[in-house]
Design goal:
Largest sheet: 5 strands, antiparallel
Number of strands: 5
Structural class: alpha+beta
Order of helices and strands: EHHEEEEH
Strand order of the largest sheet: 1-3-4-5-2
Strand content: 35-45%
CATH architecture: Roll
Number of domains: 1
């Protein structure tokens, strides 16, 4: 069954505590935006909230990421965080993302992130179960 690679969008707004001494969003906050968007999209788009993973003693660990910063975000800016799954194999998922200014659609930052599914009791990677893969896949009657 093919993985759902549809791009999902979550709107967010820059908060005062996101701003660094240079007057724009600190680089560390961009991953916070991506994570907030993914949690919201897991619930809204995949019908699989993070609590469902936790109830199964599973969690997602960010193992590697790359971000290209193109335009600064500033206090009060509204943005749209676009994410989509690119690949799912073994215990890992690769997610591409872009953060775009809501006012003009210009990309502020873009990149990718690798997440690994882990058993929260042991902290060790766990192969993504079939029931999770099924929830993140296209319905059988869809055209990829």
């Amino acid at each position: 069954m093919p993985i759902n690679t549809q791009v999902y969008i979550t709107p967010l707004t820059v908060r005062p505590d996101d701003i660094d001494m240079f007057g724009h969003v600190h680089s560390s906050r961009y991953m916070d935006y991506v994570l907030a968007a993914r949690f919201e999209q897991m619930h809204r788009c995949y019908k699989m909230p993070m609590q469902e993973f936790l109830d199964c003693h599973l969690g997602w660990y960010l193992s590697k990421t790359e971000i290209q910063f193109l335009r600064p975000l500033k206090l009060g800016d509204s943005m749209n965080v676009h994410t989509n799954i690119v690949e799912m194999a073994g215990a890992a998922v690769r997610v591409d993302f872009s953060i775009k200014l809501a006012s003009n659609g210009k990309v502020s930052a873009a990149g990718w992130a690798n997440y690994v599914l882990v058993d929260i009791h042991t902290g060790k990677p766990k192969a993504i179960p079939d029931w999770v893969i099924q929830r993140y896949s296209l319905p059988k009657d869809s055209n990829p």
